[in-house]
Amino acid sequence: MSTTEESKRRAEALVPKFRFERVLNQDEAGRRINLYGQVDSQPALLVLERAPFPDAPEYLSALPANLRSITNLGNNDIYAWFLGSGGPVLQNNEKDKFADFKISLIWPCTEKHIKKHSRQGVRFVTETPEIYRDKVRPFMQVNREEGRLNWVYNIIEGRKEIEDVIYRTPLGRDGDEGFLLLPNLHWDRKTIDALHLLGIVERRDLWSLRDLKKKHLPWLRHMRAKLIDATVKTYPQIEEDQLKLFCHYQPTYYHFHIHVVHVMLEANSTQSLGKAVGMDSIIEQLESMVGGEETGMDSISISYTVGEASDLWTDIFEPLKNDGRASLPQ
């Protein structure tokens, strides 16, 4: 055996000898953890990260059927989400206690779902008030009419996810000012540093932050305070200054909603510049606008990222760019 092979084997033999003592840190939404312990009675530090999924067909085709346990967290319309385990089955009915997979299922999915979840290039565009009025607003209307909001209406009207609702104003009591709060379907409901909740308004005339106007300011401030208060009461280990609230633009679906997340949640692409707009920034923007109560977010230009496979790019911004009429950032 060569010296190189011997060195590799000696190194590989160290990991099974690790004797755990305590957790030093856990970050990136629970995907990395730093452990302190000992190897052969000497101090050791073990950093564990979830490795990228292999893309080998033989692995992926066998994975779903070979999960050790699957626990449904909820389902609504075509969406369902689960916790699953790829490890050994534990004793004493604890097989779901240490699930290492968060699984989402969309079935039956549409071509738009496929495009959204496919790898694609990204563009940074500026949507002027004119582009919004003439191109994007009609695009939103078409999307709303395709039935993609059924799952949202199921939640609002109490047909689905009733047991998950953390806070809500009684349905219909507050008219246009009703709203509710519940866990986002992508959160595992356990990892506090990755907390992700969703505030959904009852009214259906607000499609996105573009519909917000100065007349909505008292309601927005009230809703912000209630969402924060409900979150810290439900999860007392969290303090107010450990939360951030934002809206997406463009949003994934056209019914106004607010994301409530822990500040430690990894700032991935959905929270980055060109996607997330802080709720405080929205309120401040509206406060500073010159004009009457009907003055709103539809009067400004907004820059954001769009995927090259999205209809927003292929149907709106790419043609505008090719025509030389798009307002693209310099």
TrEMBL record:
Active site: 257
Gene Ontology CC: nucleus; P-body
One Pfam family matching this protein: DcpS
InterPro entries: DcpS/DCS2, HIT-like_sf, Scavenger_mRNA_decap_enz_N
GO molecular function: hydrolase activity; RNA 7-methylguanosine cap binding
GO biological process, one term: deadenylation-dependent decapping of nuclear-transcribed mRNA
Similarity remark: Belongs to the HIT family.
Protein name: HIT domain-containing protein
The species this protein was found in: Xylaria multiplex
